Known about the structure:
By secondary structure, the chain is α/β, with parallel strands linked by helices. Helices cover 52% and strands 15% of the residues.
Amino acid sequence: MAEIGIIMGSDSDWPIVEPGWRQLQALGLSAEVLVASAHRSPEAVRDFVLGGEGRGLKVFIAAAGAAAHLPGVVASFTRRPVIGVPVSGSALKGLDALLSIVQMPPGIPVATVAIDGGQNAALLAASILALNDQALDRRLAEFRRVQAEGVRAKNESLQARLNG
């Protein structure tokens, strides 16, 4: 059963969201994914969020560009954590989306990751779930260990080239 719901304002957001979706799979998590617009199909957003709670969704990721109202609309329908992903598809290269998402009014929080930060949104969602899942917490620790080892290996390679 999926514990994470991912909503994109457009299917053109998938290249931003897909790395996070793949990251979730690598961590042994699954997600329900939906394309729905805060403005053009708000009923679909509401139904996905409210129905998702009943299906066991515990964290929502919402990716949107431009005015980026989708994360806030999702948060208005749930008390579960919502992570907003600002998408860079607009003339302002995502700055408009970033500002829209981080400026939520008091009482309706939305966590926000970097512009086009789909993978970090997934890792944040996994970290939230890991608070109550020791096995997932161990998988996240292993992911970080592998990342650190990769950095060490790159440094060793650089040092060998510089001192070679």
